Amino acid sequence: MTTQQTRTIPIAGDETILRVRERGLWGQAWDRLLKNRLAVVAGIVLIVLIVVAFGAAVFPGIERYSPSQTAPREAFQGPSWSHFLGTDNLGRDTWARTLEGMRISLQIGIGTQVVVVIVGVLVGAAAALGGRLGDNVMMRIVDIAYAFPDLLAIIILRAILSERNWPIIGSGDPQIPGLSGEVLQVILAISLVGWVTVARLVRGQMLALKEADYVLAARALGASSPRIVFTHMLPNTIGPIIVAVTFGIPLAIYAEAVLAIIGFGLQPPTASLGTLVFDGYTYYRASEWLILVPAGAIATLMLCFTFLGDGLRDALDPRGRR
Amino acid sequence: MAGYILRRILAFIPLIWAIATITFFLMHAVPGGPFDQEKPLPEATKRNLEARYNLDGSLLEQYGTFLQNLVKGDLGISFNQDRPVTDIVRERLPKTLQLGLCAFVFALVGGLTLGVVSAVNQNRWPDYLGVFVATVGAAVPNFVVGVFLIIFLALKLGWFDVLGWEFGNPRKMVLPTVALGLLPLAFIARITRASMLEVLRQDYIRTARAKGLQEFKIIVRHAIRNALIPVLTVAGPILAGLITGSFVIERFFAVGGIGTAFVDAVMLRDYGMIMGTTLLYAIAIAVVNLLVDVAYGIADPRIRY
User: Fold this and answer.
1) Least CA distance to B149: which residue of chain A?
2) How do residues B34-47 score in pLDDT, each as one tens digit?
3) Nearest-angstrom CA–CA distance, A52 and A46
């Protein structure tokens, strides 16, 4: 009885409130994001880079040369009209290789976050809602994961997953078009470490939301548990997850680059941006373009994702704004 | 306080055990063994080698022996260098620690200065400059910084050496320190600026101004003290991250520290070395976190354990 009264009173006759609400929470967040110039520029740069990098896989005219096509007579050239960004030690075109590397680094960055979100949300929600035992087990795992240096674990996992003849992530021909088994190994190695952050985030959000008044109200009205979780609680955790993912992508790109630079990279001739930095490091005395270009590309990707993440965080969490 | 520290140290034991166990089984799951080569060894030779390095017997038996030795502080022998792991670690640890601490001091001093200067000059050009450095520095990976430093300052201008690490020799210290420390510097600058702005709005700062104290004294004596607390909370993870996350910088500048030793050990399936370096890292992180929590309690009297 009382519940129904309090639910109707604030809305009745107050049209100004209604008109503001028309935009919706997501619409308001979008407006706030568009006001952040840095985030908008970063977003546009990212879209352009993603379109060009993946478009080059469909239209070879963008790359102009095959990334693996060697021409030993044309090795170590500087930038020119025939080779936009010069050539490497085997005469391969740096522009084509950088586009391929960007494609692979983006696949790894985004793919990692797909796995991380799926695992993280499931585990985090299970810990928060599944009773005390599950929660304790989860928190002990988190404790250990935090005591274990991320890169250390990623390096060992990468070594464990390599040289296997497993389906899909094995070392043979790619079974998912455009996504090689080796790239999937890297994605798996990084996400096996990365899910902990999202799981902890989701757990914290869910624990707080469990006690929120509107969840209690929904429960009092007789909503079923799955309905409460999926229609009321999950949408309210999406904002922080989006932010975590946007910051997670550059971290994954960085982790892959580290793997490549210390010698756990992809099998040649496939090259991620990290591999290109590694190759460039070997030959920077002959041509510094070989290392400056991929290093600059990684920096650009990471900067853009971080700026976009900053913008999204401010836009999606109105309470946290200054 | 003493009781709290003791409890925390006792909690290290299960943590170290868990990490040792996980690492043990993970590294044995890496395909290939330390004696696999292009040309296979004769069966008898391989058996003798495995007996010498405690690799015969089932995995569980190996695990049992390993735990017994670990309790005695014996990490085994490095297969690759045929020397006790503890010797190699003792030799290489100082370089990684020196590099990590130098980068930490650089990040702390630089970050605090940048943050305070930014906050005091809010919305004027030093602030914009500080925010720019903090925003860009926080997103650019350390090896990219390293690449640009090597090419422009070492190769083109010749101010610094390209390779090597030698404590006390600036030509060999500056570049790795800056490359490793720039990212945490940016992070610290950001936090310092935000917390400084917060503190400068407090009533007691207004009181200090009202009674006519010099602005410089207000900032140094009153504001920075309280603005430091949030920085202190992140200082621990940052220091731990600098010591354990220097793989790439160690490789780029040929520092010859623990990071390189760990990477080589994984490559060569040098089980003793993998274990030794991993445990060392885990202990370093645990100790640093404890130190920071203790420092936190000293800096902020509101915190009681």
Assistant:
1) A292
2) 776 666 677 777 77
3) 10
**Residues B186, B135 contacting (CB under 8 angstroms):** yes
Measured distance CA(B69)–CA(B90) in Å, rounded:
18
Contact A250 B266 (CB under 8 A): no
Question: How many angstroms away from the CA of B82 is the closest CA of chain A?
Answer: 22
Which residue in B98, B273, B297, B58 sits closest to A156, CA to CA?
B273
Could you write out the DSSP letters of every residue in B92-131? HHHHHHHHHHHHHHHHHHHHHHHHHHHHHTTTSHHHHHHH
- The beta-carbon contacts of B65-68 under 8 Å, at least 24 apart in sequence, are B66/B20, B66/B24, B66/B275, B67/B20
Residue A45: CB atoms within 10 Å: 16
**Chain B: nearest CA to A228, how far in angstroms?**
36
The pLDDT score that the predictor gives to residue A8 is: 43
Alpha-carbon gap, residue A118 to B117, rounded angstroms:
43
Residue A267's φ and ψ, nearest 5 degrees, are -65, 130
CB-based contact B215:B140 (threshold 8 Å):
no
- Residue B192 and residue A147: Cα distance in Å, rounded? 26
Confidence of residue B54 (pLDDT cuts 50, 70, 90): low
Whether B143 and A310 have beta carbons less than 8 Å apart is answered as no
Q: Answer whether B266's CB lies under 8 Å from A162's CB.
A: no
Q: Which residues of A touch B286 (CB under 8 A)?
A: 147
8 Å CB contact of B148 and A292 = yes
Q: Cis omega before residue B84 (within 30°)?
A: no
Q: Which of B241, B273, B234, B290 is nearest to B12 (CA)?
A: B290
B284, containing H or E segment: helix B271-299
**Which DSSP letter does residue B84 get?**
E
Q: In B157-196, which positions are buried (b, 16+ CB within 10 angstroms) versus exposed (e)?
A: eeebbbeebeeeeeebbbbbbbbbbbbbbbbbbbbbbbbb
**Between B159 and B54, the higher pLDDT residue:** B159
Interchain pair A263, B263: CB under 8 A: yes
Quick one: DSSP state of residue A72? G
B249/B146 Cα distance (integer angstroms): 7
Map residue A179 onto helix, strand or coil.
strand
Contact B26 A277 (CB under 8 A): no
pLDDT: which is higher, B56 or B28 = B28
Residue A65 has phi, psi (to 5 degrees) of -120, 160
Q: Could you identify the residue written with the tokens 């707080």?
A: A208
Q: Which of B26, B274, B282 has its CB closest to that of A147?
A: B282
From CA A154, how far away is CA A183, in angstroms rounded? 14
pLDDT recorded at residue A322:
40
Determine the pLDDT at residue B103: 93
Alpha helices for chain A (secondary structure H):
2-8, 15-21, 24-35, 37-58, 60-63, 94-129, 132-147, 150-161, 181-210, 213-220, 225-227, 234-259, 273-283, 289-316
Above pLDDT 90, what percent of chain B? 7
Backbone phi, psi, residue A68, to 5°:
-105, 5
Which candidate, B102, B103, B104, B134, places its Cα nearest to that of B116?
B134
